Protein 1
Amino acid sequence: LAANLSALRDALADFDIDENPRSVQQKSRDFYWYSPILKDMLKDVCADLVIAPRSEAEVIEILRLCHAHDVPVTVRGAGTGNYGQAMPLAGGVLLHMRHMTEILTLEPGRLVAQPGAIMKTMEAAARDKGLELRLFPSTTATATIAGFIAGGSSGIGAIRWGGLRTPGNILRLRLVTMEAEPRIVELTGEDIFKAAHAYGVNGVITEVEVPVDPAEDWVEALIGTRDFAAATRLSFAIGRAEGIVKRMVSTFEPEIPERFFNRYTEFTVKGEAAVAVIVTRDSLEALEALVAADPETTMRFRSDRDLGERRLVSLYEYAWNHTTLRARKVDPSITYLQMMLPQDDIYGVMERLKTDFGDEIVLHHEFTQFSGKVAAVTLPLLRYSSDARIEEVIALLEADYGITVFNPHRVTLEEGGMKKTDPAQLEFKRQTDPKGLLNPGKMIAWTDPDWVPEPGRAFLFNH
Ligand code: FAD
């Protein structure tokens, strides 16, 4: 690789290149350290150089040269992914999208942007025109739109619109392939899922089109409940209430608001579980009626009523994967899981988890729409004792509780959220990256077609 890199380096003289070892190291990392397992496994991963293309034409030229010199390429947006998605396991070039940040079209119904556009900037631009995004991650302040589509899955807006996998939430992707003569491919409709949530293993996204809708007037609220079951019941009721237009419904066991909701502690009560919601101003009356109807629930905070002079960050920065971040700031030994409890027995399983695991697992649900139904996705905190215990807990949850775990302690598509190889993504990679140079090591089927999962053991990529 060294000789190839040096030849590549000479050919790339006119590009924006970063070779400073410290910043290359820093840009080679994402939020992988959320997982003690990945923290150890990926600590030495580093690119050889970082290139920041200024245009699609530069992306094409870089990929053409990297293909010619057999140099791997891993794309980076903002590097906020949690599972080492953007980390270059085989070294080579890190393609940093920080120059390609423009919004190209913004009109009712659609927003077209370059891949490195920051989602919060997109939302602000949309709101200036009376529009808004459907879906964004809680890292919207820094996350890029292509990073969200290639690495993310869901977030704020999912209770109304479903996640990224729901048809209609991405309208079009434009990619550049990794071939002797890179091609531009446009994906629409079902074809989008060949490259969405594929960690950039089968093309570099250079343009994205997403839907925008008329902007709503959002208000945030924090509700205290007697216990976590009451919080979950209220959340399902809010989720299902047609008269309440909502963007977020999140539910937390008492320890979370008590210890980790720093700026909001004056609005939390010790021992109470919490429900954080974002609803339209017009829905507040219906929300208040639901809360008042249940003696176990109390409205504790409304942003339209209680803000005063306070400058509070949005409640979404306490929800989704931010819950883990907040907890880790107080107690760095905390890690997390991502899972789906059996929805038809959710209260029974919640109770068994409490009895069997005590405070080793602290529950937190995010509510979303799945095929027209309200569902709870569970992102619990997990008190860390050893890597082996994480593996053991996951195996127990899957075997004894009927829980599906989307393992966040794995770096590959198969072992994490996807659970298995997506044949359409694999076939697309054969067409777009025949040498297997894009983000190597993230799609097991490409490296080892005969691989079978072994509970408790991570796939090891040797390049
Ligand atoms: P990166 O981390 O830079 O990249 C993610 C993946 O996309 C990598 O595999 C990368 O190679 C690939 N990629 C990036 N750009 C391109 C491109 N142009 N072409 C092809 N591939 C590309 N995720 C959610 O879905 N919902 C949440 O609510 C959420 N909350 C989070 C909260 C915290 C505190 C943290 C740390 C993470 C959270 N995440 C969440 C994960 C992550 O922040 C989001 O998915 C985010 O959108 C990723 O964007 P990024 O620009 O940082 O992508």
Note: The two ends are 11 Å apart (CA to CA).
Protein 2
Amino acid sequence: MAEVILKNIEKRYGDFVAVADFDLTIENGEFLVLVGPSGCGKSTTLRMVAGLDDPTGGEIHIGNKNVTDLEPKDRDIAMVFQSYALYPHKNVYENMAFALRIKKLPKEEIDARVKKAAEMLGISHLLHRQPKELSGGQRQRVALGRAIVRQPAVFLMDEPLSNLDAKLRVVMRAELIKLHRKLASTVIYVTHDQTEAMTMGSRIVVMKDGHIMQIGKPTDIYDSPKSMFVAGFIGSPPMNFLKGTLYRKESAIHFKTEGVDVPLPSHLLQVAESYLNKEVLLGIRPENLYPACENDHEMSCLVEVVEHVGAEYILHAKTTGDTEIVMTMPAKVAAPQIGCSLLLKCEKEKIHLFDPESGHSLT
Ligand code: ATP
């Protein structure tokens, strides 16, 4: 187990900056997830920790040791890739034992480690199979087993579940969470999937264009996104954004746009003062909208699409001002009909305001 410190890491390819100002301490035993859209620099960051790419600036420390200039094999890390990268002509046992044989560990030690990891992963019965005789999920377990037997200080995982089908991904997600609890080791995990980030990470780093946009616990990032980018990226279906202006009505401040008039909650009033009569974006998550009555509503919409996804409906509607709104609704209630009018209110404490130019949250 070890702490990993990334000190102002940077990676440039000529003039192109793939990662910049990456400053982060990953604590001992933490499950840290790097998440962001394709090309944001997640894999590059992970590969620099692994020693597979050299940073063009900054330092990397693993367990009190500056490893910036060390070879991957001297960093006490194990990497699990999306592609599994198993040796096709070695059986499962030999795949798992390989790195230990290179290290010239005693035979008994290798055997004990392989068998213990296989048991932990539920693949003891597969040790004599060839990789081609395994399912995707089993191969993924072997790839994990290969990393576990090495007992590294840090596990580095690059989209390890993305080659699995949707159902198996959910199963393996839970398996990885349990495994991390058992091993209590430091994990740095790369994914573009916000659900994986939310469910697995003890902390999440949201990246965009090579930069850290926000670092925090999943719930903090979900509840208090610092920017429209983070608010829109984390959460599915994503947060709704409405463009409008703030105006004073008696002692309250309201957000207004065509078909929408929302009185702001008290926690936003102070910041709203400085945006009076200016344009802002109101953000509200799909699950924080609820149906309202004719004489007490804040949004007036028309239902366009109703998706029934098991436990809930996802409604796609349009305000009379032509803004798309998505809301979720428990499937216990009757679904509104397509083309019907839908009157809504916002959960007051869940309203966010953003600056339309910078995209920053106003709170
Ligand atoms: P994905 O989710 O698609 O794997 P990512 O967030 O992991 O994306 P990286 O693979 O880290 O992104 O790439 C970050 C940026 O660096 C991308 O714009 C990529 O095109 C660029 N890049 C990566 N490797 C090189 C290279 N060898 N030469 C030039 N540019 C590169």
Note: The chain has nine helices and 20 strands.
